[in-house]
Design brief:
The complex is a heterodimer of chains A (about 450) and B (about 90).
Chain A (H helix, E strand, L loop, with lengths): L4 H13 L3 E9 L9 H16 L2 H12 L3 E8 L2 H4 L9 H14 L3 E8 L6 H15 L4 E9 L3 E3 H17 L11 E5 L20 E8 L1 H9 L6 H30 L2 E9 L9 H7 L10 H19 L8 E2 L7 H9 L4 H7 L7 E6 L5 H18 L3 E7 L8 E3 L6 E3 L9 H5 L3 E2 L9
Parallel strand pairs in A: 1-2, 2-3, 3-4, 4-6, 7-8, 8-9, 10-11
Antiparallel strand pairs in A: 1-7, 4-5, 5-14, 6-11, 12-13
Chain B lengths: L4 E8 L5 H11 L3 E10 L2 E9 L7 H15 L1 E7 L1 H7 L2
Antiparallel strand pairs in B: 1-3, 1-4, 2-3
Helix pairs in contact in B: 1-2
Chain lengths: ~450, ~90
């Protein structure tokens, strides 16, 4: 037999007991041809365009799932940032566009649709402002729409006016979805250096440099890495890195195969393969558990940043070898609510917001799915965003903030979102004010790192 | 284009008639066995077959369902997966 029985059983074990999955097949669709001054016509164009490309997405991915016996958990769509394509609309309220996206997502049978987005790192156009102002109502009146705003890049610096505005938008979104613990905020991301081909939600959008339609695939498997690391007998850190690299390689190959087959069957271009260790609430399918497997008593203690740096780098190296088109975020995610080990670490008192912030300087994303008390001021949220954006800007990497100031909650409460979003312990923030700093507005200029030409 | 060869794995508690039952269903669907290996791993009966499907419009999902039902009747877990799933992961 060409493939050894042990290898066959290894693959089967990864899927059946270690939660290896293709987390998402995300179809990116350009809406650049949809613009129209009349918002009703525009919405119709958007709907038709999405359905034209995405009508067979779910059926095709299900066929591939059965063919290979590898679960494909989510099917998603990302579209051109709506702020760009709706710029020419006469209307200022873009909520109906979000509702159109929601309807298209529902009819196509996908789980999420991303791209209710704006890119405002250096300033805002009227269309950008219309979109940002529409976010709270858009997220409160839709189920599947995800929104993101890029407020900083290494090349442009940080748009602090936008940072200040996003603090208010996040508060308002939480308030408008307070019947569901502020779940609207779980679908809203503020970015620095947002990738244009990321298949993961809530931050996915279809960048302006992308083709008309593209398939991007996100693979996950913290459980597989966790059990591989735990099976090592008294390893050195070098052994651990080597083990993670090899495991990441295998997982990535699986994603590459699925992505190419999906693109071929749908007759669209294959974009990128994003290998990100995205945890789920399942026991063991946890990034925190991997860090603890390396020898930390509890995630968040001293040494956590170093362990995460090792993990993130080894994942990238294994992924880069396995696929010729690695992109998106590709690294380790540390969303608190979605990771059973992170939740436990917070409850034990070993993991704080400040430590999470430090960890984001060495992993692929940012402060993700973190609940803070309902009375947290918008300027404090803006200041949390500003810190995170600064890390991204200076280190030339993507960072993001997805915080939920869950209304009427206090430190220690648990908020339930359900499904992949999990449940979040409300974490304390600093009580000293950042009000004056945030209210100054303007821009933090592009850093010296931007002068590369 | 994906391969026309499939890996069929049968895992469960050993008993009389597993091989006979599984291969009978395969014969009904005209699925040819290219290679077969059988072992006991962690006290579990483990059979791995490499099978070839020659028909142009083979109904894979019907075959998968029939195999899975047969497995349930025999008290074992049966998976039918395209060979590429393993080839991609373990071979460059």
């Amino acid at each position: 037999m060409l493939i050894h029985p042990e290898e066959i059983l290894e693959t089967i074990k990864m899927v059946s007991s270690e939660n290896l999955d293709i987390r998402t097949v995300t179809m990116g669709i350009s809406l650049r041809g949809c613009s129209h001054p009349d918002i009703d016509t525009f919405n119709e164009n958007v709907y038709n365009r999405i359905m034209y490309y995405a009508k067979d997405l779910v059926k095709t991915t299900n066929e591939i799932q059965n063919l290979y016996g590898i679960p494909i958990i989510n099917k998603r769509i990302s579209v051109t940032p709506i702020a760009i394509v709706a710029e020419s609309c006469d209307a200022t309220d873009l909520t109906s566009v979000a509702q159109t996206l929601d309807r298209a997502a529902e009819d196509a049978g996908v789980d999420f649709i991303g791209g209710f987005s704006a890119l405002v790192q250096k300033g805002m156009t009227p269309g950008d402002l219309n979109l940002i102002n529409s976010i709270p109502r858009a997220l409160a009146t839709t189920n599947k729409v995800c929104s993101s705003v890029n407020v900083a890049t290494t090349k442009a610096g940080i748009n602090m006016d936008a940072v200040a505005l996003m603090g208010k938008v996040i508060k308002e979104t939480a308030e408008m979805t307070k019947d569901n613990a502020g779940i609207g905020c779980a679908k809203l991301v503020v970015f620095a250096n947002a990738p244009e081909d990321n298949p993961f939600m809530a931050g996915a959008f279809h960048g302006v440099g992308e083709p008309d339609c593209v398939i991007n695939v996100g693979v996950s498997g913290p459980g597989v890495v966790n059990s591989a690391v735990r099976s090592l007998k008294d390893p050195t850190l070098g052994d651990i890195s080597e083990c993670i690299k090899k495991t990441a390689f295998k997982i990535t190959r699986m994603g590459e195969m699925v992505g190419r087959e999906a693109a071929r069957r749908l007759n669209v271009q294959f974009g990128v393969l994003d290998l990100s260790l995205a945890p789920t609430p399942a026991i063991g399918d946890s990034v925190a558990a991997i860090l603890e497997a390396m020898g930390l008593e509890s995630c968040g203690t001293h040494g956590t940043t170093a362990a995460l740096a090792l993990l993130n780098d080894a994942v990238k190296k294994g992924g880069a070898m396995a696929s010729s088109s690695v992109g998106g975020l590709s690294g380790a995610f540390i969303p608190v609510s979605e990771d059973e080990g992170m939740i436990r670490a917070v409850q034990r008192g070993s993991l704080s917001l400040d430590k999470l912030e430090a960890m984001t300087s060495v992993c692929s994303v940012g402060l993700d799915m973190i609940a803070v008390p309902g009375d947290t001021s918008s300027s404090t949220i803006s200041a949390i965003i500003a810190d995170e954006m600064a890390i991204g800007m200076i280190n030339k990497k993507t960072t993001a903030v997805r915080v939920i100031p869950a209304p009427d909650t206090k430190v220690g409460d648990m908020i339930e979102f359900g499904g992949l979003l999990g449940s979040a312990p409300v974490m304390p923030v600093h009580n000293f004010s950042s009000e004056q700093f945030i209210s100054r507005g303007g821009r933090i200029p592009a850093p010296i790192q931007s002068l590369t030409n | 284009m994906s391969s026309s060869r499939f890996i069929i794995t049968v895992i469960g508690i050993d008993k009389v008639g597993i091989v006979a039952g599984i291969t009978q269903t395969m014969a009904q669907y005209n699925v040819n066995i290219v290679d077969i290996s059988q072992t006991i791993m962690d006290d579990l009966f483990t059979m791995i077959m490499l099978a070839q499907i020659t028909e142009e419009n083979f109904d894979l999902s019907a075959f998968q369902q029939a195999m899975s039902e047969k497995g349930t009747a025999l008290g074992v877990e049966v998976k039918v997966q395209n060979e590429d799933a393993f080839r991609f992961m373990h071979r460059i």
